[in-house]
């Protein structure tokens, strides 16, 4: 029952090849990522909106700083008189 079965016609044994000392790691590919056009558009629109908000805050901060400098200058001149 557990005896090996040999082929009828003898064949030469296969040539022994040495295995490499450090086999290359098996690379597993990731499944393809499909990004919808709507998601890309949402990210782009979100980036544009955030950039516009940042620019608005920067412009507001600069104008408040300029107004503070002008008011300070006017008050200093008023106190000197």
Summed up:
It is built from one helix and no strands.
Q: What amount of the residues lies in strands?
A: under 5%
Radius of gyration: 39 Å
- Overall morphology: rod-shaped
Low-confidence stretches: none
Portion of residues within helices: 40-55%
Number of strands: 0
Termini distance?
120 Å
Helical stretch count?
1
Largest beta sheet, briefly?
none
Return the string of H and E elements.
Answer: H
- Structural class of the secondary structure composition? mainly alpha
Task: Describe this protein's structure.
- This protein is an all-alpha fold.
- The protein has a domain at 48-81.
- It has one helix spanning 37-80.
- The model has no long low-confidence stretch (mean pLDDT 83).
Secondary structure layout:
Blueprint: H1 37-80
Provide keyphrases for this structure.
rod-shaped; 0% strand; mainly alpha; 81 residues
């Amino acid at each position: 029952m557990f005896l090996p079965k040999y082929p009828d016609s003898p064949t030469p044994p296969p040539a022994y090849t040495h295995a490499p000392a450090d086999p290359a790691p098996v690379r597993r590919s990731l499944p393809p990522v499909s990004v919808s056009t709507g998601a890309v558009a949402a990210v782009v629109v979100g980036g544009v909106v955030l950039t516009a908000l940042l620019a608005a805050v920067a412009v507001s901060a600069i104008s408040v700083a300029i107004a503070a400098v002008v008011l300070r200058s006017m008050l200093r001149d008023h106190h000197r008189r």
